Write a sequence for this structure.
């Protein structure tokens, strides 16, 4: 199998594993209550991040620039995830 396909399958496996965490947690506690919409939004967000990682891997050659883009991507992802989860910026995205 080509490296590109292995990498894409790896990204999809990581996304699936991350989405399993709240699904499993919901079986053991009432503190985690995700709806289907929550899983869809998280999946789309993670798939978007995975796609951007794939583009960075394929298109960017400069190691320092690549690292900077990864750091920026992680920061944006975490801020967006936190906003969607608890509304830290009190924006319309959080449904506040």
């Amino acid at each position: 199998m080509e490296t590109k396909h292995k990498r894409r399958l790896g990204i999809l496996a990581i996304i699936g594993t991350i989405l399993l965490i709240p699904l499993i947690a919901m079986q053991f506690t009432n503190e985690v209550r995700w709806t289907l919409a929550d899983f869809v939004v998280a999946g789309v967000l993670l798939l978007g991040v995975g796609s951007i990682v794939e583009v960075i891997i394929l298109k960017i050659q400069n190691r320092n620039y690549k690292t900077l883009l990864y750091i920026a991507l992680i920061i944006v992802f975490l801020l967006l995830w936190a906003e969607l989860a608890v509304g830290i910026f009190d924006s319309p995205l959080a449904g506040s």
The chain is about 75% helix and 0% strand. Helices lie at 3-28, 36-59, 63-86. The chain has a mean pLDDT of 90.
